[in-house]
Design brief:
Blueprint (H helix, E strand, L loop, with lengths): L2 H20 L14 H5 L11 H12 L21 H13 L10 H17 L7 E5 L2 H16 L4 H4 L6 E6 L5 H8 L7 E4 L9 H13 L3 E8 L11 H11 L2 E5 L24 E4 L1 H4 L7 E5 L2 H8 L30 H36 L3 E3 L7 E6 L7 H15 L5 E5 L2 E7 L7 H23 L1
Parallel strand pairs: 2-3, 2-4, 4-5, 5-6
Antiparallel strand pairs: 1-7, 6-7, 8-9, 9-11, 10-11
Helix pairs in contact: 4-13, 5-13, 6-8, 6-12, 13-15, 14-15
């Protein structure tokens, strides 16, 4: 491909992207293909001869697009969003075009210094501790792994990296509502799933601080070593919130590393009315949130903040001869701040988003998303055949259909979910709340409006009525 062909198809793809975003509501939100359908339409061997871009793009439209679930659709209410926006897409394009490998300052000074500055902006806007340092990771899962590894190395005097992990009997604590990435990180860190303590939660699905302390004290009495407490602001199932000040106090009391996971809900901290949620954070050790979830910066882009950057660097730093430079100690070489050596210029798209929206624009959009959830919450409360299943804190509403006279509500709600998702009109997911099958609606997609939320609610009520009539026929 020469530059003229690149220019031609580049323009064509920009037009396709703009048209796609403009007309995205014409697509079913969730892909309707059957398992292996896409795979079986693809040739079993790679082409020997070069193929034209016309052929490639035609196959993209005919084969690939039917198998895409449209996360940027305003009726995507599932999981948590992986939001994109036009400024972010432009930043991503430039990042890819530059093709910079931003492992150390020398390999792209602008990447390192923009990353430092943009994360300082967010630290200020979210009222995070002013002395903390930030770094962009790919995902919150990776950031949490970094936290656990840092806790491990600090406690061992950085000897485990040197000598390997013996039977230290370290213990990691989190609530029973915490994200599954914690379990994976504990396995990767060599601590073992059996040393992950899932602590009970209260009626708001927040970690029970008394139960947590009891676990810590029992472990100490049994000769085990409390290593790390992981708290959550916005749990995956219900967006439950753990009390940061209480966790930090326990961490200080028992000399335990405290990491706060705010992957989705952390963006809400740009709103002053939510800052109370991080009271006591200055006594914790690290904090993570994902701009790629609710700050309209397309995947992947995770902001990870630490109190002690030297501990993080000592955990991950390796300095072979070919990476030595004259700038050691004068600049941030971010390859020492996490797992991978190679790093993308992620700060560029985050910079584009913050500047193009402005902080006031971001705050306005987050408040609007929360107001949509508030409206839906009230509709559910007032409907005799539906009920809330968990307190609503941000833009997630957990509910279920509970028609009078029916006993197997799990089965009914599963049927309702399948019916709605198969329609293509929206995409919802479920969880279990106190062992009961529960539907989740997240009103946080970039372009969602009241039209989409009220339309979804109408479709939910209509689908429930149809299922009820069919059962009585």
């Amino acid at each position: 491909m020469d530059k003229e062909e690149f220019r031609k198809f580049g323009h064509e793809l920009i037009d396709f992207i703009a048209d796609y975003r403009e007309n995205i509501e014409r697509y079913p939100v969730k892909s309707q293909v059957a398992p292996r359908e896409i795979f079986n339409r693809l040739p079993p061997k790679a082409p020997e001869e070069a193929e034209s871009m016309e052929e490639i793009l035609d196959d993209f439209r005919q084969i690939i697009m039917p198998g895409v679930t449209h996360w940027q659709h305003p009726s995507f209410f599932a999981y948590f969003p992986a939001n994109a926006s036009y400024p972010s897409l432009l930043g991503e394009m430039l990042m890819s075009a530059l093709g910079a490998q931003c492992m150390i300052w020398d390999t792209s000074p602008a990447a390192a210094e923009l990353e430092e500055r943009v994360l300082d902006w967010l630290k200020h806007e979210m009222s995070l501790p002013g002395t903390w340092s930030g770094v962009i990771q790919d995902t919150a899962s990776t950031a949490t792994l970094c936290a656990i590894l840092t806790a491990r190395e600090k406690h061992s005097g950085y000897q485990i990296n040197q000598k390997g992990l013996s039977t230290a009997n370290y213990r990691i604590y989190c609530s029973s509502e915490t994200h599954s990435s914690i379990e994976k990180a504990v396995k990767i860190a060599g601590i073992g799933r059996g040393n992950l303590v899932l602590v009970e939660v209260d009626e708001k699905f927040s970690i029970d601080l008394t139960a947590l302390e009891n676990h810590i004290r029992k472990d100490i009495a049994d000769g085990l070593v409390p290593l790390c407490i992981i708290g959550t602001i916005g749990t995956t199932s219900t967006t439950g919130v753990d009390e940061v000040s209480g966790l930090s106090a326990l961490g200080k009391k028992y000399n335990v590393f405290v990491h706060i996971d705010a992957a989705f809900a952390g963006t809400a901290l740009i709103l002053p009315e939510f800052r109370y949620l991080i009271q006591g954070l200055e006594d914790a050790d690290s904090f993570v949130f994902n701009p790629h979830k609710w700050m309209f910066t397309n995947f992947d882009c995770t902001a990870y903040y630490v109190k002690d950057k030297e501990a993080l660097i000592r955990t991950f730093s390796i300095l072979p001869e070919y990476l030595k430079t004259d700038n050691q100690g004068l600049v941030n070489d971010y390859r020492d701040w996490g797992v991978p050596l190679g790093r993308r210029f992620r700060a560029l798209k985050l910079w584009f988003v913050i500047r193009r929206f402005g902080m006031e624009g971001l705050r306005e959009k987050i408040r609007y998303h929360i107001s949509l959830a508030e409206w839906l919450e009230q509709e559910i409360v007032e409907h005799p055949d539906f009920e809330l299943m968990a307190p609503r804190e941000f833009s997630l509403v957990c509910f279920r259909w509970s028609p009078s006279g029916e006993t197997d509500l799990d089965s009914w709600n599963e049927k309702l979910l399948q019916h709605l998702n198969q329609s293509g009109a929206m995409y919802l997911t479920h969880t279990k709340v106190n062992g009961q099958y529960t539907l989740r609606i997240v009103t946080a997609q970039t372009d969602v409006t009241m039209k989409h939320v009220s339309g979804a609610w109408e479709k939910i009520m209509d689908a429930a009525l149809q299922l009820r009539k069919a059962s009585l026929a």
